Automatic annotation (TrEMBL):
Any one GO MF annotation of this record: alpha-amylase activity
Organism encoding this protein: Lacticaseibacillus brantae DSM 23927
Descriptive protein name: Alpha amylase, catalytic domain protein
Domain named Glycosyl hydrolase family 13 catalytic: residues: 11-403
Single GO BP term: oligosaccharide catabolic process
InterPro entries hit by this protein: GH, GH13_cat_dom, Glyco_hydro_b, O16G_dom_2
A Pfam family hit: Alpha-amylase
Alphabetical UniProt keywords: Glycosidase, Hydrolase
Length: 547
């Protein structure tokens, strides 16, 4: 097994993790200061969202210098100190890599936009403006994907914000520059990379109108050349790679992450996170979750590895999305943890998830800071939706739900800063925070801590085969992990009502030892004549089958 298979990952959004100088923005020293917290939790590697120099139009995903640290976070000597502190504490460091686009303030683009003859002009994607907007392509953030550049009388492509021009990966010089930059970070001690928007590198080269934007810029034929080159670089340097590949078809799973010839070690696929339609939250469908997650588990059962997650910096909080953050907040936090965590793959925890942090539900649109959220709100209003309904949509879906300050203490600003935070803390920080949980055996934090220890000490929960169990209805998600004679049963009731669960005959015939659960039980064992359970709302139970 590789280190990234045995360990648990923890994503840090540096801007919101810990501020040490009172400017309201998290920094590298804040991360270093909380290494003891990460060690106590038990994670084995940390993925940092971007800390590169940036105008921060899209919170760091618009990079103006790939080889500089944004001054709001620190500098390169502080980064080197962070790497050393991590490695001294047996923590691996994974950096966020953004190869699809740069900031419009990157020196490459500043040169490219001045003249068609500039060597950097072909680092980006241009179309002549004489016939008007080149095609009907739209940006992921809304509006046309083309922005006019007066100096050259051309349009440039941006599939995200207009301040994020797309790089032209058809140009070998672009690829060489990116590869050299990656090598530069590897030489500084980075252990791996998360690859942002990696599925978008290839664009439809006819630049024709499309009815579906996926045809123009998602997993376009020919992308394999770029992905293989990237993958080969990572393999040559023995660093971990995990690609953000929203929309990657499960039929291509092995092509992406086969252990023998896949591009990367893992990918984040988002089938199970699509719980919204036109900005509205839809009722959770457990049968759909079973299908979405199990198809990836099965596709990589004998070759490849899954990245397991229910939260990140682009998603609303899991307790508010999959669970019940009011009546069953703590039960939901623990249930969701064990439910996704014990499938086959590497679990990722997003900062604050281990505390059960919830959506912010800010009362005013002006409280939100995210560029995409602003576009979504304005589009909703323009489409005739009332301001109150548009705000309700944002409260459920905004990326800022995951970007509020980490809730360290019940003190002002959740202990995140002594200044004014760049975005306000969730109002529930006096109740939900690390200080009140780390020494509480019944807390969400210590449930995650126990879960991490259980996985680390149980080979079947790392290497074991995954099998979905047949559970009729729309409440229970249950599966087994099997390695040799060792079987573990994971049962989760993902609803606010009681639910029935029947053990299959070949499991019911044996004694079942409860090794982890979020409800108090009177007995530690279920005997061989117990075949049925009544699960409480958001109850999760992990049983070892004793044969």
């Amino acid at each position: 097994m590789q280190w990234w298979q045995e360990r648990v990952g923890y994503q840090i959004y540096p801007k919101s993790f810990q501020d040490t100088n009172g400017d309201g923005i998290g920094d590298l020293q804040g991360i270093i200061n909380h290494i003891p917290y990460l060690k106590r939790l038990g994670v084995g590697f940390v993925w940092l969202s971007p800390i590169y120099a940036s105008p921060n139009v899209d919170n760091g995903y618009d990079i103006s210098d790939y080889e500089a640290i944004d001054p709001q976070y620190g500098d390169l000597p502080q980064f080197d100190a962070l790497v050393k502190a991590f490695h001294d504490n047996d923590l691996k460091l994974v950096m966020d890599l953004v190869p699809n686009h740069t900031s419009d303030q990157h020196p490459w683009f500043e040169a490219a936009r001045q003249s068609k003859t500039n060597p950097y002009h072909d680092f980006y994607i241009w179309r002549d403006a004489k016939a008007g907007v080149p095609n009907n392509w739209t940006s992921i953030f809304g509006g046309s994907a083309w922005e006019y550049n007066e100096a050259t009388d051309e349009y440039y492509l941006h599939i995200f914000a207009k301040q994020q021009p797309d790089l032209n990966w058809e140009n070998p010089q672009v690829r060489l520059a990116i590869y050299q930059m990656i090598q530069w970070w590897i030489n500084r001690g980075v252990d791996g990379f998360r690859l942002d928007a990696i599925i978008h590198l290839k664009k439809l080269q006819t630049f024709a109108d499309v009815d579906d934007m996926d045809l123009a810029m998602r997993n376009v034929d020919g992308i394999n050349l770029f992905l293989k080159e990237l993958g080969d670089l990572f393999k040559q340097n023995n660093v971990m790679s995990v690609g953000e590949a929203m929309g990657a078809p499960v039929g291509d799973a092995k092509q992406w992450v086969s252990e023998t010839n896949g591009y990367f070690n893992m990918i984040f696929q988002f089938n199970h996170t699509q719980l919204f339609e036109d900005g509205h939250k839809v009722p959770l469908s457990v049968p759909q979750l079973k299908t979405d997650l199990s198809q990836w588990q099965n596709a990589l059962a004998d070759d490849g590895w899954n990245a397991l997650f229910i939260e990140n910096h682009d998603l609303p909080r899991a307790v508010s999305t999959y669970g019940d953050d009011h009546d069953y907040w703590l039960e939901s936090a623990k249930c969701l943890a064990a439910w996704y965590f014990l499938m086959r793959g590497t679990p990722f925890i997003y900062q604050g998830q281990e505390l059960g942090m919830t959506n912010a539900n800010f009362p005013r649109i002006d409280d939100y800071r995210d560029l995409e959220t602003d576009h979504q709100y304005k589009d909703a209003i323009a489409g005739g939706i009332s301001a109150s309904d548009a705000l309700a949509m944002i409260q459920a879906t905004s990326r800022d739900n995951a970007r509020t300050p980490m809730q360290w203490t019940p003190e002002a600003n959740a202990g995140f800063t002594t200044g004014t935070p760049w975005i306000q803390a969730n109002a529930n920080y006096p109740l939900i925070n690390a200080a009140t949980q780390v020494d509480d055996d019944a807390s969400a934090f210590n449930f995650y801590r126990t879960l991490i220890h259980l996985r680390a000490t149980t080979p079947a929960l790392i290497e074991g085969a995954y099998t979905l169990l047949d559970t009729p209805g729309d409440q229970v998600f249950a599966y087994t992990r099997t390695l040799g004679d060792e079987i573990y049963v994971i049962v989760a009731n993902l609803s606010a009502d009681t639910a029935n669960f029947d053990f299959a005959d070949d499991i019911a015939a044996y004694v079942k030892q409860l090794v982890l659960g979020n409800y108090i039980y009177k007995t530690e064992f279920l005997t061989s004549d117990v075949a049925k359970l009544i699960l409480q709302p958001y109850e999760v139970a992990v049983y070892r089958v004793v044969r």
